[in-house]
UniProtKB/TrEMBL annotation:
Main location as per UniProt: membrane
Alphabetical UniProt keywords: Membrane, Transmembrane, Transmembrane helix, Transport
Domain ABC transmembrane type-1: 159-347
InterPro entries: MetI-like, MetI-like_sf, OppC_N
One matching Pfam family: OppC_N
UniProt topology in membrane: Multi-pass membrane protein
Organism name: Paraburkholderia phenazinium
Protein localization: Cell membrane
Gene Ontology terms: cellular component: plasma membrane
Swiss-Prot/TrEMBL GO biological process terms: microcin transport; transmembrane transport
Protein name: Microcin C transport system permease protein
Length: 368
């Protein structure tokens, strides 16, 4: 075997150079957020719980998911059928909790696949043997309210309504707060002074009295509450955005953008706003907590969403009126506290992830 080596064999071998790509600011924030274990797992639990509440009709409903009757398949969850369809006498919508209808489904060749919790949030179980409000039982795992409605279904759908309300109210308040604070902080001078005086006058209006007046004129509802609370929900955030714009408008990159001929609006939204979003992002979970508490308080006072819309505040009011029905107050209060704790843990973790000083200190402490 020849030991001769070619020039290529004698040449030194070098490893390919790999370029180091620095992660984006958003990715670095996400990496720091994931290290906040309590806040990170709170986010996962909250998202999973909200997703489960969105899919609640599939697992908490008084209508079967699928029915096989006389050789035909029916999907009551997605389509309305009359009692006549299943051998009844009335053309009205079938009551799938009726023992007569259930007996028809139990015949040979027929079946009905019910959700794990066979109750909707407004289902009245007329065939219950226990007086209402009924304690937890095999039929109603968390008991019933004073009208005989399943408490588990009311809590699940009430959780969904509360989160949806908080998301919409937070989104609207954030948009208005950013716009108002950005205009005042960037232009300053008379614009800032006039804007601040107008905001002071507007914030002096009695919000609760306005809610009571409008509730007496119009029927309270989801949309009306969103509109009324959005009129005042942006004020606090606008102060933080204004302070950030006042600080950042004197930075060198703003002067460079002006020298390049960019307009004021381009400088505001392309350059100053991305560097002023820290308080906006930090306060999002806390603003959601405030929105949930506002809806719960209004529902408790009877100024919130109308019945039979599921509401945590309405359940708390029932617990106050039925002190012997301990399960209503206990489980409702537990769901409300869990929601607020999860959002608080998320807000704290997000604040720590956005504050590089806190993250560096925690990293230094971990290295020690």
């Amino acid at each position: 075997m020849s030991r001769a080596r070619t020039r290529a064999d004698l040449a030194p071998r070098t490893e390919p150079v790999r370029a180091f790509i620095s992660p984006s600011p958003a990715r670095r924030v996400w990496q720091r957020f994931r290290k906040q274990r309590l806040g990170y797992w709170s986010l996962i639990v909250f998202v999973v719980a909200f997703a489960a509440s969105l899919a609640a009709p599939l697992w908490s409903n008084d209508k079967p998911v699928v029915v096989r009757y006389d050789g035909h398949l029916y999907f009551p969850l997605f389509k309305t059928y009359s009692e006549i369809t299943f051998g009844g006498d009335f053309p009205t919508q079938a009551d799938y909790l009726d023992p007569y209808v259930r007996d028809r489904f139990s015949k040979p060749g027929n079946f009905a696949l019910y959700p794990p919790n066979p109750y909707y949030y407004d289902t009245l179980n007329y065939f219950s043997k226990a007086p209402n409000p009924a304690p937890p039982s095999r039929d109603n795992l968390l008991g019933t309210d004073d009208r005989g409605r399943d408490l588990l279904a009311r809590l699940v759908y009430g959780f969904r309504v509360s989160v949806e309300f908080a998301l919409v109210l937070t989104l609207i308040g954030t948009v208005f707060g950013i716009f108002a604070g950005a205009v005042q902080g960037f232009f300053g001078g008379k614009t800032d002074i006039i804007g601040q005086r107008l905001i002071e006058i507007w914030s002096a209006l009695p919000e609760l009295y306005l809610l009571i007046i409008f509730a007496s004129i119009f029927e309270p509802g989801f949309i009306l509450l969103i509109v009324l609370l959005s009129l005042f929900g942006w004020i606090g955030l606008s102060d933080y955005v204004r302070a950030e714009f006042l600080r950042n408008r004197t930075q060198d990159y703003v002067r460079a953008a002006r020298a390049m001929g960019l307009s004021n609006w381009q400088i505001m939204w392309r350059h100053v706003l991305p560097n002023s979003l820290t308080p906006v992002i930090t306060f999002l979970p806390f603003r959601m907590s405030g929105a949930i508490l506002s809806l719960t308080s209004l529902d408790f006072l009877g100024l919130g969403v109308p019945s039979p819309t599921p509401s945590l505040g309405e359940l708390l009011a029932q617990g106050k009126d039925n002190l012997d029905a301990w399960w209503i107050s206990l489980f409702t209060f537990g769901v409300l506290v869990a929601m607020l704790l999860l959002l608080t843990f998320m807000g704290d973790a997000l604040r720590n992830a956005l504050d590089t000083r806190i993250s560096d200190a925690m990293r230094a402490g971990g290295n020690q």
